[in-house]
């Protein structure tokens, strides 16, 4: 049955939800708080499509790692100390999820979400004529220390057990895989099923397609409240007026908790800020994306440019640039790629974006119990781009009252209610 659908959020999750819902015949209105040229988290990220990322953010050792990183102003991870009850509750739930049982249970689900999304990107690549740089060359996890290499080998073994192919490589084998760049590492792991793309190009192409297809996209439109009844949501109040629909989807990324707050819904989610810099003319140009594992920096070739992205700062919806964190990224790069210099980045603009992080590292996808015509699609942490298409497809199936392509019970928005 054809329905009217209102989607809050114009990032990759909202756009993909609009795409798949429109394909099922629904009438779509999408509201985006930013301007049409906004550069949100869907634009400046590392561009990874990552079956290799099957271990949730909340995993054994993360609490200790976070505590060790706190004193270092240039570390890749930090949490701004606060007495905010939402942050305290989130941190408590995060700590409870950092165990091996949770990882074992979550890994197959994250694997399936990423592999299914990769298949969706292959379809988009065909539809858009290869215009957003979708490339299937895998991912290298590069290590400088024996401790980290042992950890990556353990992850590779886990991956192979669940069907995510991983190969442990020596420095010589790594150099043979990507002879285009000089590396100083002791070893690493290669994940051949990973892919990458140019995120800002994908967002632009998808937006253009949706507008031409009749999807109404309204920019500069911020949600200020909701109209409700015993039947559910009756309308959404915004800075540009009130809008009504049969079904509502909140895909507001890091702003999702504030969007649903007036509905008396507490969504456990914190914003994790990340940064990126993109060199237009890099000294060397790798052909395979890589993660500098100890530094937690992602490196992605995007056309003729090269993007470096990293850090996780949990500090609210603050998009300001912390130069200490940026310097941490810049200083780490020559340790792995010795041909690069810190001065390469002197004139490069720094992008910042907010990743929506759930306490258990799993996204929120599906209907809410309190409002039967309200669905959420957020909380993807660093995998928003990677899982964008499959999330959109699942949401389209949910609002259409169809059986979902994947069992999403574990992703319920009410799992912490």
Task: Give an overview of the whole structure.
By secondary structure, the protein is of the alpha/beta class. The protein has two domains: 4-42 and 201-268 and 360-411, FAD/NAD(P)-binding domain; 56-98 and 128-194 and 269-357, D-Amino Acid Oxidase, Chain A, domain 2, CATH 3.30.9. It has ten helices and 20 strands. It has helices at residues 12-23, 62-69, 85-97, 100-127, 146-161, 171-177, 199-212, 256-260, 323-336, 384-399; strands at residues 4-8, 27-31, 48-49, 77-79, 139-143, 167-169, 187-191, 195-196, 216-218, 223-229, 232-238, 241-243, 247-250, 270-279, 290-292, 297-302, 305-314, 351-357, 364-367, 374-378. Strands 4, 5, 6, 7, 14, 15, 16, 17 and 18 form a nine-stranded mixed beta sheet that branches. Helix 1 runs parallel beside helix 7, helix 1 (12-23) runs parallel beside helix 10 (384-399) and helix 4 packs across helix 10. The model has no long low-confidence stretch (mean pLDDT 95).
Helical proportion?
A: 25-40%
Which second-level CATH architecture of the largest domain applies?
2-Layer Sandwich
Going by CATH, the homologous superfamily of the largest domain would be: D-Amino Acid Oxidase, subunit A, domain 2
Shape: globular
Question: What descriptors fit this protein?
Answer:
417 residues, alpha/beta, FAD/NAD(P)-binding domain, six-stranded mixed sheet, 10 helices, 20 strands
